């Protein structure tokens, strides 16, 4: 994969929405703070988005909001609190997109990504942004045989994102009309950290 500095240009105005509101019920600890490569997982995701040049970078907080916010307080991000985080991922997407548009109403596209994908990097974001610009379609990572996050949605899909409800997130949009999605195989994005076993498996892969 090319270095971030050498990647083709993406959308003229790309914002990023990082989803970090979950309650970590299966982890038994605040997973946003787990150490991944020497940094808390949420900080790693934020740094990837910032290095990609996306602005604004919105971090959606919910459960454990204050301790998670403190971890990234010195970074130039927009913290958006989702008081309804228990309703599911869709509420965090709506909260994050609304905050991104409030910060820059002229955004052309937005990256959606959960903070618990340790394979997320600036290079991945730039690759998806470039694919979106080249094709004019939503761009998404493909792993486990399906399209998924991270994904870049153009302005024409903002209404559909704001209409999401429940805990399904954007996956339905990415797979119900797959011909409208430019997908690229990124198997490393298939690893997320939801349980202690996931965390142990990821650490084992790094050793």
The count of DSSP E runs of length 2 or more, i.e. the number of strands, is 9
CATH architecture: Alpha-Beta Complex
What is the mean pLDDT? 89
**Helix segment tally:** 7
The oligomeric status of these chains comes to single chain
| CATH class categorisation | Alpha Beta
As a whole number of angstroms, the C-alpha radius of gyration is 16 Å
Distance N to C terminus: 22 Å
The fraction of residues assigned to DSSP E strands is 15-25%
H/E series, N to C? EEEHEHEHEHEEHHEH
CATH superfamily: Spore Coat Polysaccharide Biosynthesis Protein SpsA, Chain A
Question: How would you sum up the major sheet?
Answer: 7 strands, mixed
Low-confidence stretches: 1-8
Strand order of the largest sheet: 5-4-1-6-8-7-9
Helical proportion, percent range: 25-40%
The CATH topology is Spore Coat Polysaccharide Biosynthesis Protein SpsA, Chain A
In terms of structural class, how would the helical and strand content be classed? alpha/beta
Shape: globular
């Amino acid at each position: 994969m090319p270095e971030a500095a050498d990647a083709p240009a993406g959308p003229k105005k790309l914002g990023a929405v990082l989803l970090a509101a979950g309650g970590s019920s299966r982890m038994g600890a605040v997973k946003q703070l787990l150490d991944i490569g020497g940094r808390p997982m949420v900080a790693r995701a934020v740094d990837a988005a910032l290095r990609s040049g996306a602005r604004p970078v919105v971090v959606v907080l919910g459960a454990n909001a204050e301790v998670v916010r403190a971890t990234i307080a010195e970074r130039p991000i927009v913290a958006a609190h989702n008081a309804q985080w228990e309703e599911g991922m869709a509420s965090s997407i709506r909260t994050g997109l609304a905050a991104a548009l409030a910060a820059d109403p002229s955004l052309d596209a937005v990256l959606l990504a959960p903070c618990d994908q340790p394979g997320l990097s600036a290079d991945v974001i730039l690759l998806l942004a470039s694919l979106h610009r080249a094709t004019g379609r939503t761009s998404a990572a493909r792993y486990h045989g399906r399209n998924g996050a991270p994904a870049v949605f153009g302005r024409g899909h903002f209404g559909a994102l704001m209409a999401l409800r429940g805990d399904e997130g954007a996956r339905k949009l990415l797979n119900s009309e797959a011909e409208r999605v430019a997908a690229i195989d990124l198997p490393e994005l298939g690893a997320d950290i939801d349980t202690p076993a996931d965390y142990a498996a990821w650490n084992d892969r790094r050793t």
